[in-house]
Amino acid sequence: MPDASFIYTIYIRATPERIWQALTDPSLTSQFWFLTHSTDWAVGSTMTWHVAGVDIVDAEQVVLVFDEPRRLSFTWQTFTPEFGEAVGDDPELLARLASEERSTATFDIEPAGAQTKLTITHTGFETGSAVLAGVTDGWPMVLSSLKSLLETGQALAFH
């Protein structure tokens, strides 16, 4: 039974609307996250992930909550062999990632004075999850890059 989760909060000098736009607009998402999503953002709609030149299509990749500009939630990506090849994942690690239950990423956006509080809650992991280990390293980098982009106009470079 899934019981582990990852929660990370960051404060960004930007409006909730600007953060929302960055999370949902592919022209911004591609700058700080190095991926994009194709979806109409309606609850229940599927999301196609575009990562490292690979399109990941799966009927279980769906929008769960779309409460602009307060809350956005969706099921986490599918780990395909094509994704693994594109990002250079070890085949053994990719098999572990692909074998896990689907998790959920939720962004909560709250005004906090002159800035905005952004919290990512990523849930649905079993103890020892390889996906959890990956997002534990990944989310702080992604959200730091988002903060940098919105506050300075330049995302961080991780390549």
Automatic annotation (TrEMBL):
Q: According to its UniProt record, what is one Pfam family this protein matches?
A: AHSA1
Task: State the family named in the UniProt similarity comment for this chain.
Answer: Belongs to the AHA1 family.
Q: What is this protein called?
A: Uncharacterized conserved protein YndB, AHSA1/START domain
Activator of Hsp90 ATPase homologue 1/2-like C-terminal domain boundaries: 14-151
Q: Which InterPro entries match?
A: ASHA1/2-like_C, START-like_dom_sf
From which domain of life does this come? Answer: Bacteria
Coiled coil start-end: none
